[in-house]
Amino acid sequence: MPLQQQLFGQLPSGTAVHLLTLTNSHGVTVQLMNYGAAIVAIHTPDRDGRMADITLGFDSLSGYLDPERNSYFGCVVGRYANRIAGGQFVLNGVTYQLAVNEGGINHLHGGQRGFDKVLWDYAVAEADGAASVAFSYLSPDGEEHYPGNLRVDVTYTLTDTNALRIYYRARSDKDTILNLTNHTYFNLSGAETILDHELLINADAFTPVNSARIPTGEVRPVEGTPFDFRRPTPIGARIHQPDEQLQHGHGYDHNFVINGTPGTLRLAAIVHEPSSGRILEVHTTEPGLQLYSGNFLRGALGRAGRRYGRHSGFCLETQHFPDSPHHPHFPSVVLKAGELFESRTEFIFGVQHAHHG
Ligand code: GLA
Q1: CA angle (274, 276, 280) in 5-degree steps
Q2: Which of 115, 169, 317, 333 is the most buried (most CB within 10 A)?
Q3: Tens of pLDDT, residues 230-272
């Protein structure tokens, strides 16, 4: 049965939230829920075929509803993933003031009640052995002070080639800004931290930030910095170096400029976890990739009694660059009235077999 639906819990209003499980022919499963259009769990085999969850999350809906425990686990982030300085932007000569929900200075991840905190509609489908869930949400004009009635569709498909495809579409009836991502935290071994995971990022440059984690506007070559992941390097290998950028991020919390042409699906990152052999590949049409090394996780009680402390998971958030409205040379985040916004990201799950001899 490639697609299962069950009750996951209830919102305080009494509305039911559903858990949807996609399964492919290799036994890989992806669990999704309509609250936040979120990924709840992903089970993949290690090199010996043992299945385990490779994400951080909670056993029940209550964990996701608790702001003390839930740091955007698995959700779709919008309308604007990451930060906008001062929560302000100007569009067609009009100044919009969004919530400054990060320390009273930045707009973060869509505001007080972003796409992670709303209930999405959904429809399930199966074709050619691949099961998918299509989430949709109508964000009304003025919601979180963004302009335009915005209809967003996010479709997750699990293929028999062990790829989880995420296809984002959106349309607004007024000019607006938009930056969507998925905020899944991964840990491919279940170890206490992800610092031993070997990471490759297909990026020759990144966008440095100031102490408020807002891009300065500079596009800096990674060459000779702890941000050079062009060859596989453990996430923890340089994370404690006395580097100003690592200090501003409290670790890695930075946007990388993915090589190649935005709009075309291309490699963004490969993660290899040596003890399990698990591999995660990320491909996207987006221009940027936020590497977040779980710096602000503070030990929340997660799934199966696990504590999610600092660096217990990492996120690879495919996106447009943070604070783009203030940096005209960054790829534009403006969505014109009536135009179709499209974006694709794929997470591909694999294993590397140990070398003998
Ligand atoms: C993003 C941000 C981080 C942090 C997390 C959520 O990755 O860049 O600074 O806010 O989301 O905790």
Answers
A1: 75
A2: 115
A3: 999 999 999 999 999 999 999 999 999 999 999 999 999 999 9
